[in-house]
Amino acid sequence: MRSTASLPIFALLLVALSGCGAATQPKVSDPRTTVVLAAPLHGPYGALGRDTVRAARMQLKAEGLPESGPASIRLEVVDESDPAADGFNPEHVASLVSDALEASRPVAWVGGIDSDTLAVELPRLNEAGVVAVSPSASALPFTQADPAFPGAPIKYYPAIATFGATFARTASTDSMIARKMLADLRRLGITRVLTVDGGDTAGDSYSSAVEQLAASSGITLVGHESVPAGNADWEGIGAEAQTLRAQAIIWGGFPGVAQAELWAAIKDSNAKQLMVSGPSVPPEFLTSLAKVAGGTVGYSGALPSARQGNKGSSFERQFRKEWGSTPTAGALRGAAAMKVALIALASARQASGPATNLDGLRLRVSKELRRVRTVNSLLGTIRLDASSNWQLAPVGAWKASPNGAVFVGVLP
Fold it and tell me: What percent of the chain has pLDDT above 70?
């Protein structure tokens, strides 16, 4: 049994893609064969990131491919989190991408676990022609126009004229998650909500989705506050919620200090609002928040493995056997994300042959990525829409309890 200790920041794994025809044997270090697997190995997303890496490795292993050959892949795992920083560090992510592009020269990037990280990675990768496949980032502006993000989605693709929109995700979007969340809140009798976030990509996107969908869901958005951490009057926001008669306060942003401070302020005020977390907050983070009088629920695409895909249960059993632990909710999507990249890369190699130079191969992979629709991975079968989203990804609800986050169920 393999160790469950944290994975190293960099690791190599050699595999080969079948059906690609062989001419000459490339060197293992051939930069054309590199795929980067980027995930946070520390911080609030650490458990999700580590298990996402493990799931992606299992997908590669399941291909049943030899370790060398004319179409071998060099897999490099990099840590999206900065252990020295308190929360998300955009400078670290930007440097990470620059270093990887220069040193490893990858053809594909599987990562961008959260929307804030992906917002830094995506334009830099597109400029180089490297496709990005995210297992879980749900922000709207990566694939559609959004009033909260002027210039989206084009602004994330500076080389769109050459490479197109070099992005896919094995996750739903904030609009689908927000729609189901609002319907569930309405079912609970909630008709008035206040949205709050820290001014980050994840928060702005989810708050925007709620704003656009609230009225059609029979819910009134009574107000919105977007306040960066360290500058927020959380007690004032709590008082505002009382004045506006909000029945629920929806946090849309990054899990961390700001969210914890808001929950603490609401607890101290003895307010009765239901506190709601959006898709960027891992279920396990809910239990670290102050216990508020109105209770805490979270809505996201991070589900128990058995509810994540039609082969989730069997995949979970394989995962436990391989790694000695139950996968973090949502982590098994890493296998599906890796499979998307492998499909695009295999198709590109079949079409262009192993002699294609790096730029030519990147261009071909970007074209093939946009053609990927049906994805059969260890997680099961999923289908991407025309914008390369898993729009029908299941959405679930979690409830904070003294015994940890309790899964409530999949939303209709």
Answer: 89
